[in-house]
Design a protein that fits this description.
Length: about 100
C-alpha cells in the first residue's frame, strides 16, 4: 500500500513539474498495466532498457497510450504515455501491458 501511495504521489509530482509536454501523437492503442507483482510497480523509464532512469512507478490498472515498440535484448519496449496525463511519457516493457 505504501508503494502505491508513493507511486501516485510521484506521478502527480512529476506531472506538475514537467516542462513543455512531449508529443503523444501516434499513441492510439490503449493498454493497462497488468501483471506487476503485489507491492511492486511497473517502472516508466526514460529510454528503452533497464539502464535508463526510472521516471515513476505505475501500479496495475494504470491506463496507458502505447506507441511504437521495439525489441532491445530479450525485452520489447514500448513508447507510452499515461492516459490521464499524456505529458507523462517514457518507455515500458510490453510484458506488463494488456490491451483494452
Amino acid at each position: 500500500m505504501r508503494g502505491l501511495i508513493l507511486g501516485i504521489l510521484a506521478l502527480g509530482g512529476v506531472a506538475a513539474c514537467s516542462g513543455s509536454p512531449p508529443s503523444a501523437i501516434g499513441m492510439t492503442t490503449r493498454s493497462e498495466v497488468y501483471g506487476v507483482e503485489e507491492g511492486d510497480m511497473l517502472k516508466l523509464r526514460a529510454g528503452p532498457g533497464t539502464g535508463y532512469d526510472v521516471i515513476v512507478g505505475l501500479p496495475n490498472g494504470t491506463v496507458m497510450r502505447v506507441g511504437a515498440c521495439s525489441r532491445i535484448g530479450g525485452t520489447r519496449w514500448c513508447e507510452v504515455a499515461v492516459d490521464r496525463d499524456p505529458r507523462m511519457t517514457g518507455y515500458a516493457s510490453e510484458s506488463y501491458l494488456r490491451k483494452l
